[in-house]
Specification:
With 583 residues, this protein is of the alpha/beta class. The chain is built from 18 helices and 9 strands.
């Protein structure tokens, strides 16, 4: 048969690979295993490195496949597979590695195709080889399917799945080199029982890892809260804010000595457009009939996605860092806890957008007063932590003009996100800060059309930040967000422009609490808080005092962001005593 000139170099390359000594196969196996281990560890410190490692792993895998092709039952298929892996590796290094959004699906498709190709070869070879081929092929298909369908198709998924697969592949090649054919190219391969056993064990391990990964992906996916029909707008919605639309008993994580309801009510967006919000009302069973003083709780960050409403997550009060839950019920106070617009109900969620948050808090109080069988007082003290502290400050500012009937008499803001320009500007330098930045980068462009998010975020980081913004802090998938955040922190800035500049910066400045505050304010701050720093908070307090605010500012040594509102914090008894005085 005549070989065309264009195919001669390829044939000579294949023949050369066929004659390579087995120590080269061992060396390539070591290379594959090393690259796989690097994928399992190093990508958590660099986005750029991910594309290079995956591309190199593909090329090494392809060369190793070409070397083994002539000794397999289907040499032609093995050679096609090897060339395909090499071409994919070159494409990833040259192009796809710089487009992270495409990298995961491309690798997923490549793994599925590899698995299908291996299964096509299953009719050839001895029984051991067929069994190993089925297991290896099935593992590739499962790995590929998980990478495609897992909701966290990001850096973490690609690096873990392809890293595991590459390690197993490399170990298999090392084993084949040690137990396979001798160095002399004219000697027949040695079919040793130990070689067959090792190949089967490696294939079984690969398949078991693939199934384990699929099970983990399923568990993370099923751990995501689901928005039910309660949050859907009814056919007729009143135009005025603060109207109670729907109510039902609520029992999830509610203490035995309390009774609670889930509510749906009307509110408004910044531009005055009507909107819906949801929330929880809870009272103690043994308290006097009323009227019950109201704690309007503005929860801390739970996420940006619609499914992140506290009334949807497994621990609705813990997730938003509510302090002194039992103590406030024991004192006969009623808890009115908004979810905010866009959490549970249709968005966008006004994350760290002050007036939007405040309207949700105020209208929740007005709606709760319409509940049958619960007599609420006309006096309300607003509590808020972190994001909720920001919301609480704005609630105190907005209440006299927007909802004077809510009866806000005092505000307690705990580690509030007060100086948004300083906070958002500092997030890139905080370990894991990109997770909170993803929420801000999703919320502000959704509310303010003058902000172009692509002008602030590097192209390679856009997909990662977008996916991070869809996860709640309480769902299992946030582990992927946390690890992705670590990877981004080691890869240089994920922002191409400082968000405190331009339109973004102007909108952040607009949402720093500003205006007259005529009610008492208790502002608490942990002195070891790495997110909302004491220096940032002190600067805000000094500025507000110059504007005429009366601020009772208290700091707590050895307390960080969450520790400030923990049960053993010295702040808790002070908060309760201060609140009693306001009532």
């Amino acid at each position: 048969m005549t070989v065309s000139p264009s195919r001669r170099p390829l044939r000579r390359t294949v023949e050369l690979l066929d004659r390579t000594p087995r120590w080269v196969s061992i060396l390539l196996g070591v290379g594959c295993a090393a690259l796989g281990l690097a994928l399992l560890t190093r990508p958590l410190t660099s986005l750029t490195l991910l594309g290079i490692l995956i591309g190199a792993a593909c090329v090494t895998t392809g060369v190793s496949d070409l070397m083994a092709a002539s000794r397999s039952a289907t040499p032609r298929t093995g050679r096609v597979l090897g060339v395909a892996w090499i071409l994919l590796g070159i494409a990833i290094v040259g192009w796809l590695g710089h487009t992270i959004g495409l990298l995961a699906p491309v690798v997923a498709v490549a793994l599925v195709c590899s698995g299908v190709t291996r299964l096509v070869r299953v009719l050839r070879g001895d029984a051991d080889e067929r069994a190993a081929t089925v297991l290896f092929g099935s593992a590739d298909i499962v790995f590929g399917a998980v990478a495609w369908f897992w909701p966290d198709v990001t850096l973490l998924v690609v690096s873990l799945l392809f890293g595991i697969r590459t390690v197993v592949f490399g170990v298999t090649r090392i084993w084949a080199g040690v137990t396979g054919r001798p160095d002399r190219s004219d000697a027949p391969p040695v079919r040793r029982p130990v070689a067959r056993f090792g190949r089967t064990v490696a294939a079984t391990l690969a398949f078991a890892l693939a199934i384990g990964t699929a099970v983990l992906g399923h568990q993370m996916r099923t751990g995501t809260p689901t928005v039910d029909a309660f949050y859907t707008a009814p056919a007729s919605v009143p135009a005025e804010p603060g109207a109670l639309l729907r109510v039902e008993p609520f029992t999830r994580d509610v203490p035995d000595d309390a009774i609670a309801w889930r509510i749906l009510y009307t509110t408004t967006r910044d531009e005055g457009a009507p909107a819906l919000a949801s929330g929880i009302v809870m009272v103690g069973r043994g308290a006097p009939a009323g009227p019950r003083p109201v704690i309007a709780w503005a929860h801390g960050t739970t996420g940006y996605g619609r499914q992140c409403a506290p009334s949807l997550v497994p621990a609705p009060f813990e997730s938003g860092a509510l302090p002194a839950e039992s103590a406030l019920l024991d004192r006969g106070w009623a808890l009115v806890a908004t979810d905010y617009v866009g959490l549970g109900t249709e968005g966008p969620h006004p994350y760290l957008i002050g007036q939007g948050e405040a309207r949700s808090v105020l209208d929740a109080v007005l709606a709760a007063r319409q509940l049958d069988g619960v007599h609420l007082s006309d006096r309300t003290v607003v509590w808020g932590h972190s994001q909720g502290g920001h919301a609480a400050l704005w609630t105190g500012i907005l209440a006299p003009s927007y909802a004077p009937d809510a009866g806000v008499v005092a505000v307690a803001a705990m580690a509030p996100a007060s100086d948004l320009v300083g906070l958002v500007g500092a997030l890139p330098g905080i370990t894991g800060g990109s997770l909170f930045a993803s929420y801000v980068l999703a919320a502000y462009p959704a509310v303010y059309p003058d902000i172009d998010p692509d002008s602030y975020v590097r192209p390679a980081a856009r997909t990662l930040l977008r996916e991070m913004s869809t996860r709640c802090l309480s769902e299992p998938g946030v582990v992927a967000s946390a690890l992705t955040a670590l990877s981004m922190s080691g890869d240089g800035p994920y922002l191409r422009q400082d968000p405190t500049l331009g339109a973004f910066g102007r909108r952040l400045a607009e949402n720093i609490p500003a205006g007259p505050l005529s009610v008492p304010l208790l502002l608490a701050q942990g002195e070891t808080d790495p997110l909302v720093t004491p220096a940032m908070q002190s600067g805000f307090v000094d500025a507000k005092r110059r504007e005429g605010w009366e601020v009772d500012y208290r700091t707590y040594p050895d307390r960080d962001h969450i520790g400030l509102v923990a049960d053993d914090s010295g702040f808790i008894p002070e908060l309760l005593a201060w609140t009693e005085r306001q009532f």
